[in-house]
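testing teh design pipeline on a random one, pls ignore if ur not involved
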């Protein structure tokens, strides 16, 4: 019942497509049919000129379909009339000669004889060739018809009824429709291929399992999950019965993450229940699927059971397990599998070793990687450039690009042809070490060897110049990319935006950001860099305007972005907007971080709402955040302003108990508070503590003490402060005024 329901769904979809195509021409891209072996044959291929002649009755009445106002696949009435075929068609019928048939280009024939005559002639030739077993030739002719339909924006859904040789003897056309399915499927016209399958079923035709498997494979490659499953169920229900290749295609689709492990097991069991014996390809696909979902141990057990029962096992089965273990970081377990392969007399190949070399070098064990390369050579397995590239990458990560370059040169001297990947690895390695001169020389050599640098190569160099300078080189490389038509990665664009923002070129940053938005490439980092740059320039309102743009593009602002905006408004004394943003942050489900809490605490303190600030400080700690010297100093300074030195002193002691060292700002805030209360002894005591802790007082600290002592007539102490300032801190204009 589930199968019928699913297939009815497919038929409904296809019916809708037919109705739409009757109303409006469908434009469908005609691509290269690379997935079919037959597509390797071009129009210049010389087929057998003399196939065995089979008796074909073409003397009877010819059914000709007359086109009535046809532009986009309009319905055509069937009439019977005598028609004189062109000499080429007659010659084809007489000889079944492909050299004659290949002259029948549908576009030329249609132009000369009209659509109706041309399609009928092609229908007859196609069916005659099909009866003669000339499948490749039939495929080529059908491909020509479909190509013309696509080029002319005609509806190809009615090709089934057009090509049907005789409704009374439809079985004669089964080969034609098998091949039509392949033509449609190979050219990504999957709905059309399915429509042929459905109409063939309705006509009572039994299609070939090979064409159904090909369609199934194309649906899997296109990830058309619903159609794939429906076709598979229909094949099980009404035929053609799935064979080992059908199940292998489905198993491969399942194993690419489209279904769970239980589904994969059920499919394999169903296959065996239906009497289909899995091949080594089936088993290797199943093993790959288990490894892909992370169940490498079970895959290994399965292989061991196959070996014990003399089941089919090959190197690909072991390679999947080796790769699975390396992904999990179990490299020495992967080495044991390598030894197990050898004991089973299954020779490891270059891929087995390359996987292991990559795994060890990725973890930094380049010595083991080198040992494996030597082992390959001893086993008469020539290491590939991929093997060496993994090793070179591992050496570069250890910041020994000079050694990597030596290996690279040795490979070239041994006749190995360099590729883009090897160059990119080396360039990135030199950029990481800051040796941009060597990196640039390698890129010039790369271009000289007719290898185009890819976006990641440019990204490495741009990052390198942004880190070590000069920044103008990074911008020149970026402009070079754009000029040469190389599309930069999102990361590269973000690096350039960050450079513009750091250099204060906000117009350029905004321009690039707008281009990224247009292309749908702007991400969180993009907006974060621009918002931070605008806030640094005091353009907080303009930065705030970017929030709606982010949300419109489904980019959720981070807590860092909110903190930047809140801080920007707080520095402009716009506490109303700062607190509004803080509330909005909670509303959209973003939890404030330490920075956001500290900014709000500061706002409360500056507005004299010290106890609210203290409660927020406690809440921050309750939420699992560790306060730092800035958050402690903010609350301490708030209490000092209001004169609550008891609370300030308690927080100061708590701060030291947590091993959070007070800063000059912390001490200065406390000195200010005690001076306001005329507690000069405590202020002087804190000054002494600062010096003992090697925290140098700044001009603000001296200014507070100088002003307080002078105000209360302690001129000697005031002069002492002034003299201390002269030893390292010159009195500013305000100090001089106070002195006067």
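output:
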């Amino acid at each position: 019942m589930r199968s019928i329901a699913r297939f009815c769904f497919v038929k409904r979809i296809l019916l809708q497509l037919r109705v739409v195509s009757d109303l409006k021409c469908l434009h469908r891209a005609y691509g290269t049919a690379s997935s079919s072996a037959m597509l390797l044959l071009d129009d210049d291929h010389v087929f057998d000129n003399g196939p065995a002649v089979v008796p074909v009755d073409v003397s009877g009445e010819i059914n000709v379909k007359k086109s009535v106002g046809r532009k986009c696949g309009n319905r055509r009435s069937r009439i019977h009339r005598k028609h004189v075929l062109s000499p080429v068609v007659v010659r084809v019928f007489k000889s079944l000669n492909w050299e004659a048939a290949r002259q029948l280009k549908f576009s030329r024939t249609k132009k000369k004889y009209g659509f109706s005559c041309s399609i009928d002639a092609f229908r007859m030739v196609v069916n005659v060739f099909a009866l003669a077993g000339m499948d490749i030739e039939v495929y080529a002719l059908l491909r020509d018809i479909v190509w013309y339909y696509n080029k002319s924006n005609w509806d190809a859904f009615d090709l089934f009824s057009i090509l049907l040789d005789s409704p009374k003897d439809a079985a004669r056309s089964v080969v034609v429709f098998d091949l039509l399915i392949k033509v449609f499927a190979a050219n990504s016209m999957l709905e059309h291929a399915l429509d042929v399958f459905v109409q063939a079923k309705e006509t009572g035709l039994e299609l070939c399992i090979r064409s159904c498997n090909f369609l199934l494979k194309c649906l899997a490659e296109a990830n058309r999950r619903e159609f794939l499953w429906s076709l598979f169920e229909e094949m099980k229900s009404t035929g053609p019965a799935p064979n080992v290749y059908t199940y292998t295609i489905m198993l491969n689709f399942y194993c690419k993450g489209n279904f769970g492990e239980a589904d994969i097991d059920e499919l394999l069991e169903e296959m065996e229940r239906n009497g289909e014996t899995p091949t080594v390809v089936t088993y290797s696909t199943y093993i790959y699927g288990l490894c892909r979902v992370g169940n490498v141990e079970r895959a290994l057990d399965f292989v061991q059971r196959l070996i014990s029962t003399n089941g089919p096992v090959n190197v690909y089965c072991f390679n999947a397990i080796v790769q699975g273990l390396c992904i999990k970081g179990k490299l020495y377990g992967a080495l044991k599998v390598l030894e197990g392969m050898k004991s089973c007399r299954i020779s490891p190949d270059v891929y087995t070793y390359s996987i292991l070399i990559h795994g060890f070098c990725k973890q930094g064990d380049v010595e083991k990687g080198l040992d494996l390369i030597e082992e390959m050579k001893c086993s008469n397995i020539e290491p590939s450039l991929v093997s060496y590239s993994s090793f070179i990458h591992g050496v570069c990560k250890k910041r020994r690009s000079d050694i990597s370059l030596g290996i690279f040169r040795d490979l070239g001297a041994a006749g190995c042809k360099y590729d883009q990947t090897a160059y990119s690895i080396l360039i990135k390695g030199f950029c990481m070490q800051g040796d941009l001169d060597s990196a640039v020389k390698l890129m010039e050599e790369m271009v000289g060897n007719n290898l185009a640098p890819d976006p990641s190569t440019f990204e490495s160099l741009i990052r390198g110049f942004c880190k070590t300078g000069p920044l103008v080189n990074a911008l020149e490389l970026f402009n070079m990319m754009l000029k040469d038509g190389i599309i930069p990665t999102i990361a590269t664009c973000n690096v350039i935006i960050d450079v513009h923002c750091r250099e204060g070129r906000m117009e350029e940053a905004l321009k690039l950001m707008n281009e990224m938005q247009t292309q749908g490439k702007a991400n969180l980092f993009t907006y974060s860099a621009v918002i931070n740059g605008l806030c640094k320039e005091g353009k907080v309102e303009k930065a705030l305007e970017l929030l709606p743009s982010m949300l419109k593009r489904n980019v959720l602002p981070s807590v860092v972005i909110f903190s930047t905006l809140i801080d920007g408004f707080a520095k402009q004394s716009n506490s109303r907007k700062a607190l509004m943003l803080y509330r909005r942050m909670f509303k959209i489900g973003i939890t404030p971080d330490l920075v956001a809490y500290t900014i709000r605490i500061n706002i409360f303190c500056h507005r004299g709402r010290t106890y609210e600030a203290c409660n927020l400080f406690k809440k921050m700690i309750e939420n699992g955040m560790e306060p730092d010297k800035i958050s402690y100093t903010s609350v301490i300074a708030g209490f000092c302003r209001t004169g609550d030195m008891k609370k300030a002193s308690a927080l100061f002691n708590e701060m030291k108990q947590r091993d959070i060292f007070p800063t000059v700002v912390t001490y200065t805030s406390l000195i200010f508070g005690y001076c306001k209360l005329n507690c000069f002894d405590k202020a002087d005591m804190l000054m002494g503590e600062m010096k003992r802790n090697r925290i140098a007082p700044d001009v603000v600290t001296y200014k507070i003490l100088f002003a307080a002592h002078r105000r209360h007539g302690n001129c000697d102490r005031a002069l002492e402060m002034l003299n201390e300032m002269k030893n390292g801190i010159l009195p500013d204009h305000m100090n001089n005024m106070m002195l006067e």
